[in-house]
Model the fold of this input.
Amino acid sequence: MVYNINGYYNTLLKMLEEAIEKDFMSPSNRDLFVVLEDMEEIFHYLDTYHKVKEQNYRNL
Done:
C-alpha cells in the first residue's frame, strides 16, 4: 500500500509506469501495490481487504 499524501510519491509512481512502458517491468506488477490518497480510502481498503492466494514465484 502506498499512501500518496499530497502527491509525495507521484515521481516514484511515474517511474514505475515508465518501467512498464519500456518493458523493464511487467504490467502485472501493478497488482503488487495499491495507491491511496486519503485515510478514509486506507481504512476502507483495510476493512475490505481479502488476501489473495500466494503464488510460487520460483517457477516463473
Q: What stands out?
A: The CA atoms of residues 20 and 27 lie 6 Å apart. Residues 2-50 form one domain. The chain has a mean pLDDT of 90.
